[in-house]
Sequence to fold (149 residues):
Amino acid sequence: MAVTDTIEPVVKTITLNASVEKAFRHFTDNIHAWWPLATHSLSAENAQSVVFEARPGGRIYEIDKDGKERDWGVVKACDAPSRLVFSWVLENPAGATEVEVRFADEGAGKSSLTLIHRGWENREDGAKWRKDYDGGWDGVLGKYAAALS
Fold:
């Protein structure tokens, strides 16, 4: 795939029964409680936890049962409680993509989360990865929303 080719981003929007502030904190501070490590991690059955350092330059990483840290990405922007932008590297900086997560107030104690995963053209296998993540984010965000309730 030529670098100039564009692959549409994955875009997911969900409505949440929580304030923007609570939804944002749950996404970052509680990621260890809702992220499906058994199916969505580098260490698979050896994965123990995940950490999201919600600040510019902060790391997103998993910790395996042996204590080894494995990098998932780096926070590029953190505009709490409305927006996060982070690289998604999964220990492969050359194939990094970018994820933006926006939180918006929907009134009546509800909020929305919009996730935009872009930069697929940065990978030779970007079209395949985009297809995999299009379905993968559904399950991950479903776990997030269920744990928030």
In short: Residues 10-35+79-148 form a domain with the Alpha-D-Glucose-1,6-Bisphosphate; Chain A, domain 4 fold (CATH 3.30.530.20). DSSP finds three helices and seven strands in the chain. Residues 57 and 75 are 5 Å apart (CA to CA).
